[in-house]
Design a protein that fits this description.
It is built from 4 helices and 3 strands. The protein has a 3-stranded parallel beta sheet with strand order 2-1-3, sandwiched between helices. α2 packs parallel to α3. The longest helix is centred in the last third of the chain and has 17 residues.
Length: 97
């Protein structure tokens, strides 16, 4: 299984690589924008078992990326609830700052 990490912040990429390697996951595909992530998904979708995406990225946002992926693999991936939860936490965090 491969993990697709869509993240435009180098520190975020480094953190995810550390966490995933710590979990024993060696096949990590890094994309620095939503558009790059969608291209990587199209190329490697047979091996991708998990997508971790930043919310705000150049090109496609994380939400737009998941909508595109879901359109291709609707029977497998249903992220709406998780995306809503992430968005709610993001909004809550912004209000606290």
């Amino acid at each position: 299984m491969s993990v697709l990490v869509a993240e435009d912040d180098p520190a975020g990429v480094e953190l995810m690589e550390t966490v995933l390697h710590g979990l024993g996951i060696e096949n990590i595909i890094i994309a620095e924008s939503g558009t790059e992530a969608l291209k990587a998904f199209d190329e490697f979708q047979a091996s991708i078992g998990l997508i971790k995406s930043d919310w705000n990225m150049p090109g496609l946002t994380g939400g737009q990326l998941f909508e595109e992926v879901r359109a291709e693999r609707e029977n497998i991936l249903r992220p709406q609830k998780n995306l809503a939860h992430i968005q709610a936490l993001r909004n809550r965090s912004q209000k606290m700052e």
